[in-house]
C-alpha cells in the first residue's frame, strides 16, 4: 500500500496553507512513497532553489533509516560516525532535524513520508503534520 496522488496533493496544499496562516517563511513540501519516490512536490514562491532537495532529504531520511528525525538526531549525537557514514552513503540526502514525518493510515500501515523545509525545523514539522492530518492520515514524528 502507498500514498495516493490525491492524498499527496492534499498534504502539500494543506501544509503550505498552514505555513501561510502561521506566518512561516516560504515552504517547500515533498511527499514520498515508501520506496522514496516523489509523489508530490510543491514550492511556494520565494522558497530557495535548494529547498526541494532539502524537503526530499528530510522525508528520505525517515524512510531510509526507518526511524523518526528525532531518533536520527539522537543516534547522530550518540554516534556521530554512524550519521556521517549514513550521510555519505546517501550522498548527503538524510537530515537529523525535525521536518521529516512518517505518514501512516489508521491501521498503522506505512504509506510514505513528508518532508517540509523553509522555516525553523519545528515549524516545518508542524506544517507537515497539518498536511497529513488534512488528508485524514496519521503523522508520526517521534514527539507523540
From TrEMBL:
Residue intervals passing through the bilayer: none
Database matches in Gene3D superfamilies: Haem-degrading domain (3.30.450.150)
Pfam families registered for this protein in UniProt: HbpS-like (PF03928)
Name the UniProt record assigns to this protein: Uncharacterized protein GlcG (DUF336 family)
Amino acid at each position: 500500500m502507498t500514498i495516493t496522488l490525491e492524498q499527496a496533493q492534499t498534504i502539500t496544499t494543506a501544509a503550505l496553507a498552514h505555513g501561510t496562516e502561521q506566518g512561516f517563511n516560504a515552504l517547500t513540501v515533498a511527499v514520498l512513497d515508501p520506496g522514496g519516490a516523489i509523489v508530490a512536490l510543491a514550492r511556494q514562491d520565494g522558497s530557495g532553489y535548494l529547498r526541494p532537495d532539502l524537503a526530499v532529504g528530510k522525508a528520505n531520511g525517515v524512510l531510509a533509516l526507518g526511524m523518526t528525525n528525532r531518533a536520527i538526531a539522537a543516534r547522530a549525537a550518540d554516534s556521530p560516525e554512524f550519521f556521517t557514514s549514513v550521510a555519505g552513503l546517501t550522498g548527503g540526502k538524510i537530515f537529523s532535524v525535525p521536518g521529516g514525518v512518517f505518514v501512516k493510515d489508521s491501521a498503522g500501515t506505512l504509506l510514505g513520508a513528508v518532508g517540509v523545509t523553509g522555516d525553523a525545523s519545528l515549524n516545518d514539522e508542524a506544517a507537515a503534520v497539518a498536511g497529513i492530518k488534512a488528508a485524514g492520515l496519521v503523522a508520526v514524528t517521534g514527539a507523540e
